[in-house]
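User: Hi! I'm a student and our assignment asks us to look at how structure tokens line up with a sequence. Could you show me two examples?

Assistant: Happy to help. In each example below, the sequence comes first and the structure tokens follow. Example one:
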Amino acid sequence: MKFCEYLGNLKGKRVAVIGAGISNTPLIEALLTAGIDTTICDKLSRDEIGASVMHYEELAAKLRLGKNYLDNLEADIIFRTPGLMPWSRELQEATKRGAVLTSEMEAFFDICPCKTIAVTGSDGKTTTTTIIAEILKKEGRTVHVGGNIGKPLLCMADEMNPEDIAVLELSSFQLISMKKSPDIAVITNISPNHLDVHTDIEEYVEAKRNIYLHQDGSCRAVLNYDNEVTRSFAQSAPGEVLFFSRHEKLRDGIYADNGIILDAENGHSEKIMPCRDILLPGVHNIENYIAAFAAVRGFAGRASKVGTAKEFKGVPHRIELVRELRGVKYYNDSIATSPARTIAGLRSFDQKVILIAGGKDKGLEFDELGDEIVRHVKRLVLTGKTAEKIRDAVVNTPVYSGKPEIIVIEDFREAVFNAAASASQGDIVLLSPASTSFDRFRNFEERGDVFKEIVNGLDS
């Protein structure tokens, strides 16, 4: 089905789009241009949304804004924003009145004309997604990147050709209501995350499983053999299962052994490349690459895989080298919104670092992070709502004996200045918060950008 046909099927129906932000702009414009009865719902006020409100009104949009923006919502089709769970009271009431819930990504799966590769997991989603896309581009394929990164793809579907490939990053919030799965589903790992939003860990895991549950026998699930949860998913995968592993030799799959990445099929292994040739630092990026290599098996050759690994400099805010000043290297790992992500960041370096951590609490435990901080951190600068929680996890760990020194500073900028002032030649200063950014910033990107601004403004 073409996107224009999809819009045609909405004629005569009342459509509500939740969220007036940039990511929904193409969809809203398309609906209104097609003359579809469209209501835009957003918890922000007119002043907070800005000038786009007037533009939408000129196109005959109806608006429901402010605190009670979803109360008694009457619609036939509701495009849910990933930030609003389908079991929310307002959406449940709307469905009881006959509304059908969907989303930009769910609709895209309905009409996408090309193969789809989608990546989810607790950590490594964005980097793995981007690596897959870069490999395929180097192979000469036309690639469309979307989901949590890239562009909203629904309105671009008519521009895609059957031989193209859509590469998507999907969160648990997007997956929880999905009724279709990609041709190739990649799960990097599963660990507790977003428990401030999900009802419990079981709901979180089930949401992740949705990425492959609707596949058929022609599809592929790429699973992390080293992760107990993802390894167990193989039992319920409808199609091919291809494992990847950093620790185990595999009869079929992509694995690392003695510093070499190999591709095994029916017990026969062929060398892809040495791990040391991967430009991105850290063992977690070895995992990201072997997951990506498994995803593109049959779609890209060895030269494209190796070339990407040697050249790709990484995604912003993911152990991103900001600058080196007076022999001190500053790294931005603002994407680390969970303890597991920060642990991976700490393990990326061969020396102890000066760590800046802390942010909004999303209900995760920091006990394991406490142990890792003692082993990998020489000075800990804490800031944000989780500062005391992280501090307690460090001082209460059995391996703590007074080091690292722990400093708690309320102001984020002052925390960065303190870390910089304590650093000497050869040191590494790492922002890796182990917490979300929402206590002070709109998102982790803004937090990382502020960190980079501060670091780049330090006197040289």
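Example two works the same way, sequence first and then tokens:
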Amino acid sequence: MRPSAGGVDAVTAHVARALGVAVVRSAPLAGGQVGQTQRLLLADGREVVVKSSAGTPLEVEAFMLRYLSERAALPVPDVLYADGELLVEGFVEGSTRTTQGSERHAGALLARLHGIAGDAFGFERDTLIGPFPLPNAWTSSWPAFYAEKRLLAFARLAAELGRLPDSLRDRVERLAASLPARFAADGAHTAPALIHGDVWSGNVLTNGERIAAFLDPAICFADSEVELAFIDLFQTFGPAFHRAYRAVRPVDAGYERWRRDLYQVQPLLVHVALFGGPYLAGLEARLVRLGV
């Protein structure tokens, strides 16, 4: 790490006050859609990661990390401090490169996470995915929850940002309206399971053959296949993950037949809202395969 250019800036001064220890060095870290991220060396020898953002309630991310650590025993960074504009985590040494061993470990960890059942779909509070609020009002019906809180919510957001054409928004709305009939015809049992919600390669740190930490969660109780569809969309893990996961939690044929495409619509809408055009083709391809 190198010393901060121009001395201790406002963020590192905030960290020093919050933790009661001086900051010796800082270096920027890449990645993420929320504010700025730095790696700091403290005078007591600890290394920490600090996120700062004036527009995102980082205490929500802190809540999610603590929830996963305490309720699910999922490996996540320790939260050292959080307020509305600052999140300080313990630094986790690791790589974003996976091996077959670390993928098997990820499969076992996420299968265990998905074994934590909820009484309904949603969560006790709204959470975050990237910079966006994730609405989580408790809902007993999975088709209703996914239609209203995921498809329609993020189609509306992407349209309001000027990044989703009206023609595609209309098709997403038709898809949402069709979900009760589709799930009734499918006959698959859908139960609320705790999910991480944002498992892409940049949010997974490995240490050799093990997972060191999952980062930046977007938690709720959902159909566990939502997690698998996200992983498949961004090719986070390969066959070793799926074999380990399915050894604990079997996945029926309806996932490959249509539900994977369905559950990839929402993260594609999030990415359309973030980045626009590059993700529109992928969104349209899923809508075509789903017949809307």
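Here is something you could point out in your write-up. The chain has two domains: 10-90, 100-289.
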